[in-house]
Design a protein that fits this description.
There is one protein chain. The chain has 226 residues and is of the alpha+beta class. It has two domains: 75 residues, no CATH class; 135 residues, Alpha-Beta Complex (endopeptidase fold (from Nostoc punctiforme)), CATH 3.90.1720.10. Helices cover 23% and strands 25% of the residues. It is built from five helices and ten strands; from the N terminus they run H-H-E-E-E-E-H-H-H-E-E-E-E-E-E. The strands form two sheets. Strands 5-10-6-7-8-9 form a six-stranded antiparallel beta sheet. A four-stranded antiparallel beta sheet has the order 1-2-3-4, with no helix packed on it. Strand 8 and strand 9 form a beta hairpin. Helix 3 packs across helix 4. The longest helix is centred in the middle third of the chain and has 16 residues. The chain is globular and about 50 Å long.
Length: 226
């Protein structure tokens, strides 16, 4: 029996393979574990999201807009600046989410929360913490951030661009959002209430209210989970 030449047969088999497989790379659309060495916690798996790996090897996360599930966004995993996205909530955090939604829906006036210096946002979040069993909250946003970290709050994301927050599905009701000014200093804070909405003070309206997340004059946001 006549044998077929080996090299032409091998070439024919290679032509039948997908382009990504020829290069030893996964095809676009293949599910992958999120693995970014820059994260302090190393590898983690998020079952509620689908991670795609492009043929160039870049990991992309498909995000769904929290207030409009029909809108999606492809974001590089590294751009989300995640640190501990799977951090668990305490009872205090769950209580803060429920209380913040209730108080925000009531739209009380800011003057109830003004302190010296005249910072209403941190005084409001300190009020929520006090009603959920965490007395002694600082009346400065930056000082309250340091205080919560000292008391064991988990860092979920650090200095993530606010343009991603409407799609940020790692947030849990009761998370504390610290908004940074362009120089990096913390200038405002609010409490996440779920479904893409936050509860916090508004200097323009003079009231506490509920509004869409990410609609701010701040560049980045840090997320703490209590």
């Amino acid at each position: 029996m006549r044998q077929l030449p080996f090299r032409p047969l091998l070439a024919a088999l290679l032509l039948m393979l997908p382009a990504g497989a020829q290069n030893g790379l996964p095809e676009a659309g293949e599910d992958e574990t999120i693995t970014v060495p820059g994260y302090p916690v190393g590898e983690f798996r998020e079952p509620r999201q689908r991670v795609l790996k492009t043929v160039e090897g870049q990991e992309i996360l498909l995000l769904t807009r929290l207030d409009d599930p029909r809108q999606t966004l492809e974001v590089p995993v590294a751009a989300l600046r995640l640190v501990q996205p799977m951090a668990k909530q305490t009872k205090v955090g769950v209580c803060c989410g429920k209380t913040a939604r209730r108080v925000g829906a009531g739209r009380p006036r800011n003057r109830l929360f003004y302190r010296n210096p005249r910072i209403a946002c941190a005084a409001y979040t300190a009020y929520i913490l006090r009603h959920c069993g965490r007395p002694g909250g600082s009346f400065s946003a930056s000082a309250q951030y340091a205080q919560l970290r000292k008391r064991g709050a988990k860092l979920v994301a650090t200095k993530m661009s606010t343009r991603y927050t409407p799609y940020f599905r790692y947030l849990r009701a009761g998370d504390f959002l610290f908004f940074h000014k362009r120089g990096g200093r913390i200038g405002h804070e609010e409490i996440y209430g779920g479904n893409g909405l936050t509860s916090g003070t508004s200097s323009s309206e003079g009231r506490v209210g509920i509004r869409r997340i990410g609609n701010r004059g701040f560049a980045v946001v840090t997320v703490l989970r209590v």
